[in-house]
């Protein structure tokens, strides 16, 4: 064997040794995707919350964005604080309390009529433009569809009706059923119990990075519907894939 043959064989062997782990990883990912039998969605990959924030600006010109940001942040802080303190209140109450805090912090006087309008906006949400075609694609492919959300049952029912999605979801789960909130593992367990599937057979579609991390840590295959195009959370849990719309989720599941 001359030097040229030796180098060629060595290079081929090195390439093979480098490719094998990559091919095993790809094969494992494809096998995992083939096991998916259901998708459990958080509320916001489906429902578009932007009209709530537009209404806040309409009611409080020049202050709507600040009110919306403070309200939204405090909503989820209150879920975690109540979870940690074991002092549960449902998401409707938390949303109301968060609005009160946000208005007080910004020194905005919210009369009952404006408060009611803002709260009721969370019962009248519509879908993002890509949602209905994607859901139809998922259903045609035989996937079972579920909600798994911090929204109360009444909030989910109202928004499903508002968005014209009656009959689209086989299972509608509120974490209120377990008197907890995501990312508590008891919240994610609701999907397994209701769908009667193994956790690796249920893909969780998250809107928030922290929810994607929580679902992944629980053991769900996870797709982050990152509509806000935010950086990943530093929580030692990387979703299996991410994209900013449901068409990219469909492509992920199709392996394209």
Question: Can you tell me about this structure?
Answer:
The chain has 256 residues and is of the alpha/beta class. The protein folds into 2 domains: 36-48 and 125-254, Rossmann fold (3-Layer(aba) Sandwich), CATH 3.40.50.1000; 50-123, DNA polymerase, domain 1 (Orthogonal Bundle), CATH 1.10.150. Helix content is 54%, strand content 12%. It contains 10 helices and 8 strands. It has a 6-stranded parallel β-sheet, with helices on both faces. Strands 2-3 form a two-stranded antiparallel ribbon. Helix 7 (153-162) links the parallel strand 4 and strand 5 (171-174). Helix 3 (64-85) crosses helix 4. The longest helix has 32 residues, at 3-34. It is globular.
Q: How many beta-strand runs?
A: 8
Helix/strand order = HEEHHHHEHEHEHEHEEH
CATH C-level of the largest domain: Alpha Beta
Regions with pLDDT < 50 over 5+ consecutive residues? 3-32
Summarize this structure as a short list of keywords or feature phrases.
256 residues; alpha/beta; Rossmann fold; DNA polymerase, domain 1; 6-stranded parallel β-sheet; 10 helices; 8 strands
Quick rundown:
The protein is 54% helix and 12% strand. With 256 residues, it is of the alpha/beta class.
Strand and helix map with partners:
Layout: H1 3-34, E1 38-41, E2 47-48, H2 50-59, H3 64-85, H4 91-105, H5 112-120, E3 126-127, H6 131-140, E4 144-149, H7 153-162, E5 171-174, H8 185-195, E6 202-206, H9 209-218, E7 222-225, E8 241-243, H10 246-254
Helix pairs in contact: 2-3, 3-4
